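Please go through this chain and its backbone structure tokens and walk me through the local backbone shapes. Keep your notes short.
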Amino acid sequence: MENRTVKISFLVADDELKNGDAKLVEFLRKEGFSQHRVTGYSPMCPRIFVDLNQKLYGRSMIGVGFGTIIGNHAIREEEFYTIYKIYKQYEGKDLFTFKKERFDYND
């Protein structure tokens, strides 16, 4: 359990998230994400907040938010995997390094 503050996150919504052992939760754990303030979950609220910068995720609860939602809109689980794949390819690289060296975005 993590008590860090989630500042900005993706809000992932999918009926599959009604399950306590959802595929996305297992994926996030394998990727090294920590659960933000374990409070259980409600099958009536099948959403998860995912903070990529801090590698935190949190089960959504009715009336409880976790910081700012990127794009002010929820995304589907499969859309999250696509976005995560893009971010993952830049993990550990400097801000403007896309392949091997800084400012190589047009190569």
Observations:
- The mean pLDDT is 84.
- Helices lie at 23-30, 77-88.
- The first strand starts at residue 8 and ends at 13.
